[in-house]
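Cross-posting from the modeling subforum.

Setting up a comparison between two proteins and wanted a second pair of eyes on the formatting. Protein 1 (sequence, then structure tokens):
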Amino acid sequence: MDLAVEYGCVEEDDTCIYSLRYGSGEYSVGYLGKDRLTLASNRSIDNFIFGCGEDNLYNGVNAGIIGFGTKSYSFFNQVCQQTDYTAFSYCFPRDHENEGSLTIGPYARDINLMWTKLIYYDHKPAYAIQQLDMMVNGIRLEIDPYIYISKMTIVDSGTADTYILSPVFDALDKAMTKEMQAKGYTRGWDERRICFISNSGSANWNDFPTVEMKLIRSTLKLPVENAFYESSNNVICSTFLPDDAGVRGVQMLGNRAVRSFKLVFDIQAMNFGFKARAC
């Protein structure tokens, strides 16, 4: 995306500059390079394209990012040429005590996987799903259902929080606050982040409501530990934020909401699969 930086290739200098911005507002600008990539299976990819960041805004502690977007030069699309099926799946554990997984190509078929339609997001290098409704403790939010289908939701493992349209966020805030105040919790002061503090001084995770996101053909039911997280001592916050806290008009399903989920991006069949507490 445009960062007011010229990008492209200069034949005379034999250099190519890339410029991209993530939905969270983080960005990277640098040079493209080519090299041979050797995989664990001793398979090699010649002329593998990668980026070397020169100017980066990134809040993580990782050494780098591997891309699984739709562009031909993404890590996934370069590596999947070595397989006989266009798909990838992963499971990010909630902590370092559990083991995660990443698979490119054919994946283990699991009858417990739930499926919804996978969609290319508005001509951008991202995958999306379509939300149709939302419930808190089984009760639908008080909102016009048309608002849900006005935008798709990008599935973004590189973004921590889940961003939803502001009208949906306001209705979710109202429903959560009603449930939590009835159990002796106080709503935090930050309007853009739904946090609760126990009036008894100690938060009980069993007090927190269930959150469900209805999709095409299935429902994403978030365990409490995926819908909420401990921000600080006895302050429990929702993993949801309004879209204007990120990029206005863009909805994203972030990694906090789906940690320990097995996620399958079946590009060949254009299906998105998920299973809770898989790792």
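Protein 2 (same layout):
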Amino acid sequence: MNRQRPDVLRLLMRFPASRVAVALAGSLAIAALLFSLISPTASAEERWQAIRARGLWRVGIDPGVYPFSFYGQQGWDGFDAELMRELSRRAGLDVHAVPVGYDGFYDAIIAGHVDLAMSALVADPARTADFRYSRPYVDVGLRVISPAAVPVRDVGDLRGRCVAAALGSEGDRAARRLERRVPRMTRQVAMNEDDAIAQMLAGRCDAAIVSGPRALKEGCPLFAHRPLRSRIHCFILQSKLYVVAFSSQDRRAVEVFDALLGEMMTDGTLERIAQRWFNGR
């Protein structure tokens, strides 16, 4: 004898509508509770523990950004490399560099080939739904540098001053814009950034606008808020922050990274690393 299975709809019709509604509401509440237990925090912690169990951070890099990231005789080298190794040492981890190129950073993170990506990387606001960024570790934006004895502290101080900039450079374009905005400011053409700085130091101009890396080489601090003991004064004209990219699921790893980076900023380690890579090179 063939027995037909009860029809679900027919079974539901046997119960009052109110009881069906209560049952459905209860089921939805249970589903919501189970979903809340699988929190992003727990997932992020599990991913961080997986990195710790592996014993190393897989770092996606672009090795063509000297002096931040490049290949030397000992492998991955540069400011970013030394920063990452010191930070990883404090975390009890090793570093494995994976060359993926700047354009491949995000794909490598999504595919799980790397845990993070860094090499002169600027945060992309359009990607914040899928990726997390660390706190900045250096600002490479344009600087206005001037003699410490007669400092130019902000744009307003450029009124009636001479500013040198390398012809055709980003600093030159900024100087041209300022020349139209700031009363009586004059722009002095320089052959290159070294010449612009030389004109400022020789007193032929009151200030020079140079790139962030060149300013760091001259002794400017990594960030505007860091104190500076030097013959020159620096202020950031256009900020350009370098950060590290992680998956959006790696909130715990970002928290650890940021905390350790903060330690390195506070105890002066980051500035000492910068001095080795920018001053005198």
